[in-house]
Design goal:
Distance between the termini: 39 Å
Order of helices and strands: HHHHHHH
Structural class: mainly alpha
Radius of gyration: 17 Å
Strand content: under 5%
Oligomer: single chain
Number of helices: 7
Shape: globular
CATH class: Mainly Alpha
Number of strands: 0
CATH superfamily: CDP-alcohol phosphotransferase transmembrane (TM) domain
Number of domains: 1
Helix content: over 70%
CATH architecture: Up-down Bundle
Largest sheet: none
Length: 176
């Protein structure tokens, strides 16, 4: 197993730890959960860097890396919805974008089209992960709104960009 894949598995293993910490009732539990979330988020960038730099890109990594990322982010967003920090409609927009881009890739793959991560997608991922970490901090309600608005805007923009740049994939799929 490659180093990059081990880091991805570590991120996946941190998700239940993160969730348990969120629901434990001890002083500093949310800070501990935020720290675990931050470590898991950083591991996303580290494993991708290692995989590319040391030619450790594997089919397992191509599958498990985005899955671990989505479960990590969905877990945090869902918890914030339950805590009343993020509105449900924002969570639905974020989750829908993830499923839509995944569907786009699934439609493109049989045609031999690889839809690589766009720069806007990387910005969306970074802003979402940083934003979610910030939401664990004691910040005013107005700043919480600013944070989830940044997450929402980068999510919608990057999703729209994927579909606009790859609109021919759907046109071809509708014809065939």
């Amino acid at each position: 197993m490659t180093t990059a894949n081990k880091i991805t598995l570590l991120r996946a293993a941190l998700i239940p730890v993160f969730l348990v910490l969120l629901y434990l009732n001890f002083r500093g539990a949310s800070y501990a959960a935020a720290a675990v979330f931050a470590i898991a988020s950083i591991s996303d960038f580290v494993d991708g860097h290692i995989a590319r730099k040391y030619n450790q890109v594997t089919d397992f990594g191509k599958f498990m890396d985005p899955l671990a990322d989505k479960v990590l982010v969905f877990s945090a967003i869902t918890w914030f919805v339950g805590a009343g920090v993020i509105p449900v409609w924002v969570a639905v927009a974020v989750i829908t974008r993830e499923f839509a881009v995944t569907a786009l890739r699934l439609v493109a793959a049989p045609k031999g089209v690889v839809i690589a991560a766009a720069k806007s997608g990387k910005i969306k991922t970074a802003s979402t992960m940083v934003g979610l970490i910030i939401l664990f901090l004691p910040i005013p309600d107005w700043f919480q709104i600013v944070v989830w608005c940044v997450i929402l805007v980068t999510t919608v923009y990057s999703g729209a960009e994927y579909f606009i740049r790859n609109r021919l994939v759907f046109k071809e799929a509708a014809i065939s």
